[in-house]
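Example record

Each entry pairs one chain with its bound ligand, heme C.
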Amino acid sequence: MRDRGLLVGGLALFVAVITFPVWYNVAAGTPTRGPEPVRPAGTGRCVGPTEYMRASHMSLLMAWRDDVVRGQDRNFVGPDGKTYAKSLTRTCLGCHTSKAEFCDRCHDYGAVKLTCWECHIDPASLRKAQR
Ligand code: HEC
Ligand code: HEC
Ligand code: HEC
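Structure tokens for the complex follow.
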């Protein structure tokens, strides 16, 4: 194998070029930034523990939808003992008043596309339209 040196050299060059953006950012000290959703201040707690909400809010929403649409079961008792309506708009967006700065920041970051807003309204967009 006369070409061994060339092969290994070529491979090393390939890896260096492919990972260049990573090394460049490390060298330039560019911090990797998360989506930084704006959490509501002064609205107490969420309808579930923060860790659970972060990982499983989609499953909770689907369960709420099924309960309401199939079972006419519209009330949810939160961990704080308070009763909430099982409602995307009234409950979730009632505390998380900026869909843009909360929900969208994460979803845009993760390239998650929601179809929900084709039917459900974002109250903030209504308020804007009425101004
Ligand atoms: C094709 C239209 C449509 C789409 C798309 C849609 N929904 Fe709904 N959704 C409805 C209708 C109609 C109801 C029943 C409203 C009622 O009875 O209060 C409902 C009810 C709900 C409810 C319970 C009631 C309430 O006030 O929120 C939840 C929660 C819900 N949907 C979540 C979602 C989520 C999450 C998505 C996206 C993944 C979604 N929906 C997409 C039409 C839609
Ligand atoms: C009573 C007000 C309230 C309601 C209602 C509410 N939330 Fe929250 N939510 C909060 C607060 C406050 C936090 C931040 C908790 C913390 O700082 O640990 C939070 C945190 C979260 C997080 C984690 C955010 C992060 O930065 O990791 C998600 C996701 C979330 N909520 C989604 C929802 C969804 C979906 C609904 C409706 C099913 C909902 N919330 C209903 C107040 C609320
Ligand atoms: C901390 C980041 C974060 C926040 C804040 C957040 N989401 Fe999400 N959401 C995600 C991620 C990541 C996914 C995709 C998860 C997956 O596919 O496994 C997701 C998925 C969803 C889904 C399921 C979409 C589908 O079609 O499967 C729904 C519904 C949803 N989010 C609703 C909301 C709503 C409503 C809010 C604001 C009240 C919100 N999310 C806030 C990170 C977030």
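The two ends are 75 Å apart (CA to CA).
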